[in-house]
Amino acid sequence: CSLQAGLAVLLKAERLFHSSYHSQAVHIRPICRDASCLAVSWELRQTLTVVFDFFSSGQGKKDWSLFKMFSRTLTDVCPLASQSKVYVDISPKNKEKELLEVSPPPTSVHEAIVQGEKKTYAVYDLLSPSLFNTSRSLNVQLKWQRPQDSSEMPIPTLHAHRYVGGYGLQTGEICTLIYNTHPYRAFPVILLESVPWYLRLYVHTLTIITKGKENKPS
């Protein structure tokens, strides 16, 4: 469907490349067709990750919508898609009072356990016939019912901080700090570093320190 229908309608280049962060990836892996694995199929998975930061852009609001982010709305589902859904995280931080609301009403609500925490998602199924009946376009919006200080925003269970230190090829270094704020649980972490072509890295100087002790990589 390219840019004619479906979720790809939102992929407007000038909006994506002016965001705070964007990452495109293509994953290809073999999958066994049966238990004996005599026949193998290949799975192609394309992902696009984009981060918009409206709060620091001068407006001072955490409210967002599809049109505000992409300058477009969803008008139709791609007829070739067997599944096409939009998930919005509506997990309440304060259990006693809901702080946010989404519109229009979602077609369903999905609950899942993510990193040991219960998450609630509003699901918009583009294949649902009732989704485009009320209007010819879908513009998902999230609004905060009352102002919320930035200091009240929850810290993610897993988060990272990367910075550059030193200078030149001799003393220059890239430091990546990975934090786990969970009180007792450990998580497996896959770290993918995107290095520009002009930056030369020396693997023999790689050091991994965990809880103050050096962890030698294999």
Automatic annotation (TrEMBL):
Q: Specify the domain of life of the species encoding this protein.
A: Eukaryota
Q: Name one Pfam family in it.
A: Gpi16
Extract one GO BP annotation from the record.
attachment of GPI anchor to protein
| A GO CC term assigned to this protein in UniProt | GPI-anchor transamidase complex
UniProt cross-references to InterPro entries, sorted A to Z:
PIG-T (IPR007245)
What PANTHER family does this protein's entry cite? GPI TRANSAMIDASE COMPONENT PIG-T, GPI TRANSAMIDASE COMPONENT PIG-T-RELATED
Q: Indicate what this protein is called per its UniProt record.
A: PIGT transamidase
The record lists the lineage as: Eukaryota, Metazoa, Chordata, Craniata, Vertebrata
